[in-house]
């Protein structure tokens, strides 16, 4: 039983990582260096932490990108 739960958790984790990687591709950043990608994400995380306007602005950009693909 525990083995099944571990396998299911690993599958879920793997699927989530694949989906997150897809976001990098969708953003047009597939060929950027990993250090740059991490820097972008860290910077964005810091900027949205206490800034609801910036969070909303970035959310709108993302929603528009998903809307263009029908997702």
SSE order in H/E notation?
A: HHH
Q: Estimate what percentage of residues fall within beta strands.
A: under 5%
* Gyration radius over CA: 16 Å
Biggest sheet features: none
Structural class: mainly alpha
Distance between the termini: 36 Å
Low-confidence stretches: none
Strand tally: 0
Discrete helix count: 3
Provide the helix percentage: over 70%
Average residue pLDDT: 91
Structural features, described:
By secondary structure, this protein is an all-alpha fold. It contains three helices and no strands. It has helices at residues 2-26, 34-49, 52-69. The longest helix is centred in the N-terminal third of the chain and has 25 residues, at 2-26.
Write the layout of secondary structure elements.
Blueprint: H1 2-26, H2 34-49, H3 52-69
List the main descriptive attributes of the protein structure presented here.
71 residues, 3 helices, mainly alpha
Brief overview:
The chain is mainly α and 71 residues long.
């Amino acid at each position: 039983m525990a083995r099944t739960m571990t396998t299911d958790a690993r599958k879920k984790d793997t699927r989530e990582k694949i989906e997150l990687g897809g976001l990098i591709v969708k953003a047009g950043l597939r060929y950027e260096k990993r250090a740059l990608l991490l820097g972008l994400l860290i910077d964005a995380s810091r900027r949205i932490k206490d800034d609801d306007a910036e969070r909303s602005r970035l959310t709108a950009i993302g929603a528009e990108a998903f809307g263009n693909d029908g997702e």
